[in-house]
Design a protein that fits this description.
149 residues, five-stranded mixed β-sheet, 11 strands
Length: 149
């Protein structure tokens, strides 16, 4: 969806400059918020299993690994998760779970004891360590328990 909206502008840029500009995903370093599961399955018991049922999946659309060290994932209420020394491989995904767990190449954990993502409406925002915005994904009560961004 993001790319289709940019195509007319990109076509104009090619005609005017003779150069193809990068797509939004490429301009953002090839990292996007891909999928958010904001309402963990079952009752909200605040158990670690329930907390980890709430997650944000990030995708690297580039052809090389990207370091997320110092990048920030946050919600509208400014609950912030700062990425540790994590690299996301080319074409790979990583899920950022709300609860506790052991980090792997495809899963990382915020270590929280309370939910972050609101079920009624919220926005996940991903920024670089410098503070520049990379991507956002929003949802409302019209959405089911998850949202592909």
């Amino acid at each position: 969806m993001r790319i289709r909206a940019a195509l007319p502008a990109l076509a104009g840029a090619v005609i005017l400059t003779g150069t193809l500009l990068s797509t939004p995903a490429e301009a953002a370093g090839g990292v996007t918020i891909y999928h958010v599961w904001f309402d963990s399955p079952g009752s909200d018991t605040r158990s670690n299993t329930s907390l980890n049922g709430e997650w944000v999946q990030i995708k690297n659309t580039s052809r090389s690994a990207i370091s997320l060290k110092g990048w920030v994932l946050k919600d509208v209420s400014n609950h912030r998760y700062v990425f540790k020394n994590i690299k996301i491989g080319a074409g790979k995904y990583i899920k950022v779970h709300t609860g506790k767990g052991s980090d792997t190449a495809s899963n990382t954990y915020q270590g929280r004891g309370a939910y972050v993502w609101n079920n009624t409406s919220d926005t996940a925002t991903l920024t670089r360590a410098t503070g520049s915005k990379v991507d956002t994904c929003s949802w409302t009560t019209r959405d089911p328990s998850d949202k592909y961004c």
